[in-house]
Amino acid sequence: FIFSPLFIGVFLSTLVVLEGRPSEVLPKLRQ
Q1: Within 13 A of 6's CA, how many CA atoms are on the CB side?
Q2: At what angle do helices 5-19 and 22-29 cross, to 10 degrees?
């Protein structure tokens, strides 16, 4: 399976929902 940008985006979004901490995760995505 190829780790495409779309898959990575969905994976990170899932982590945000599971953790319930978008305020802490978003800054990491913008680095």
Answers
A1: 2
A2: 150
